[in-house]
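Quick illustration, no need to memorize.
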Amino acid sequence: MIGCSTEDESETLEAPQINYKLATTEKTLPANFHEIAFEREEPPAFQYLVKAAYNSVEFEQFWNLFDFEKKIPKVDFESKNVIFVGLHESSCPYHIENISDEQNTLAITVDTNEDTCDDVASPRAFVIEVDKGTTASLQEVMIAESGIRTMVLIQ
């Protein structure tokens, strides 16, 4: 006979969720995205651009770099930092499924709600507000897309 634990394994295996606010998302990327983005060395050749703004000057600079159409929102940089994530999505729009802390690494999972999508490499940028304590010494993030995890340095 084999004994079973009464502890819920899903709770022990999940990384702690991070409190965040999606400030905006748009179908936009910097004009020079392909030159400055990180590209995976192994297939699939996903590309990512991750920037972190720790003050209003950097925030405005990155907002303009990504060429957002919406008006720049107000951010309380006393308690928050902002992470910009740029990538390509399929014909089905991506959303942030969750953000968690995996061994002191910010893990961002993106997904779509649809099943039949065409590979069209459509631009997508996310602007995410995160507590300052979570991002104080952040140097890289892990992005999970289509079940594939990629470590990306913050530029």
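The chain is about 15% helix and 40% strand.
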